[in-house]
Amino acid sequence: MVAIPLGKMFILAVKQVAKPMAKGIKNASLNSPFVKNYLVMPIGQGFNWMDVKIKTSLMGAKGSKVYKLNEKVAVEYGAELISELFIYFVGSSILLYEYSRSSAKEEKKEQKQKEEADRMRSDIESLQSALMEASFLMEEQSAEIRSLTRQLGGLHTTLENLTPSSPNS
User: pTM for the whole thing?
Assistant: First the structure.
């Protein structure tokens, strides 16, 4: 049976929902006078200032003056930046979540491999111990067999000495 990757489907759904949410944030920021005047417009003006400064310094111009944008353009620029930052934040959050999940999965896999290696090492050590015991037992039995063989040889000699010699000899 094929498993459905529910986690990945959830992440995809979040990414799809983030786009309309960013658009909603943009529209809400354009409709609220407080947010528009004290958050969105300053962000738009600041980003424009930074953008112009970077571009002019890259072209080699020094000390150029940055003119302020009109209110409508600054608000549009700021709202667009806020919505893009929201999408970026959602994407980054998903990326970090996937990374941590993947790291945890990899760590769990490594832990399982380590436990398997430890179990195999333990099995090898117990087999080596059993082999040593068997080797000692074989040495003992070999010595006992040699002793019994000598005793049997001695009994055989004693038996020959006890039996009368045959008349043919």
Answer: 0.58
